[in-house]
Model the fold of this input.
Amino acid sequence: MSAETGRSRQLLARIGLTLLDDAPERWRRIDLQCRAVADVHDVTLTVLLEDGSQPDMTLPPHVVDDLLEVRRLTYRPDMGAWFSMRYLLDPPAQMYVKYNYDWDPKWRSWRSPIPAESWARDLEAFPRPEENIPDWLAERIAEANRER
Done:
């Protein structure tokens, strides 16, 4: 069963249409990735052209807001909220969305680790049963508790 609600599907469609409208000619793939916790997020956009080049493409501001709202809407009490998601578009308008509820999202673009307190705040905002707290997240929560 999909975690997506009618509203989250609308937001995903709006994101897709925005990206398609802004895409350069002869694009081959659009890859939008979002990593998020309650108070920190990172969104990257990569566009691949038929010739293999990757031009810069500006991300419209509403896309980030829409992604964070999708995260809120797809929260599941049994699984929590996703830590990262990937949104792929292939021509002419084929969309793929994948949510990561379990694995460390590996914030590669950040120079320092996400503060343990941010992970703790995320778990407070989007609780999940203890048996569905991955070991890597439990370690960060324990670190946040030690720092309090």
